[in-house]
Amino acid sequence: MNKFLEVIVTEHRDTVFGMLYSLLRDREMAEDLTQDTFVLLTRKIDEIDVSRPILPWLLTSARNLAANARRRRSLEHRIFLQGDAIEQFWERFGSVTLGVDLSERLEALRNCRENLSPQQRDTIALFYEERLPCEQIAERQKTATAAIYNRLARGRKALHTCITHKLQADA
Question: What residue numbers bound the domain in which 132 lies?
Answer without folding.
Answer: 79-170
